[in-house]
Design brief:
The chain is of the alpha/beta class. The chain has four helices and nine strands, in the order E-H-E-H-E-E-E-H-E-E-E-E-H. A six-stranded mixed β-sheet has the order 4-3-2-5-6-7, with helices on both faces. A three-stranded antiparallel β-sheet has the order 1-9-8. The structure holds inosinic acid and magnesium ion.
Amino acid sequence: MADVLFTEREIEEKVGTLGARIAEDYAGKRPLLVGILKGAAIFTADLARRIGEPAQLDFMSVSSYGLEASSCGKLTVKKDMDADISGRHVLICEDIVDSGLTMKCLLELLAARGPASLRLCALLSKPSRRQTAIEPDYCGWEVPDEFIVGYGLDYAERYRNLPCIGVLKPEIYKKR
Ligand code: IMP
Ligand code: MG
């Protein structure tokens, strides 16, 4: 890893701030937090514990290989959530929104299931890479167009368990 962007302490503070905002906005609504595997597993687990309100947890795994701005036909659901979301207040928890294509397609898919509300909470966002109009309703930090790892985010399944968030050295991914 080249540079630490956010320390463990800064992440803890940020997740606490997001959790407090969500608790206020969803008071009495028993939101369903849907973490997107695997990248958002750690974020979702921490965020859930910082929402001091009753909430439910579920997880989905989707793969977005080859998505295009014009078509969501290629979003593959590798693991669906267990919950029936009709009439529920659903908050998707994502690690990072990059082009926004995965979230655009996932939001379309979930909206069709009739939730009472559907919002997106992303720990990180790379606005300079966006190919869709998707903006997270809750966002931890905006980051530059660099490859980010740690706190759930991986490069080839490595670095997910780093407690901090950092930028990967370009020579690591240019070698391969
Ligand atoms: P999008 O469809 O382009 O927004 O892609 C989003 C997904 O790509 C995220 O859920 C991440 O899993 C992955 N991703 C995008 N940028 C990064 C990064 O810098 N580090 C690690 N994973 C990333
Ligand atoms: Mg992801």
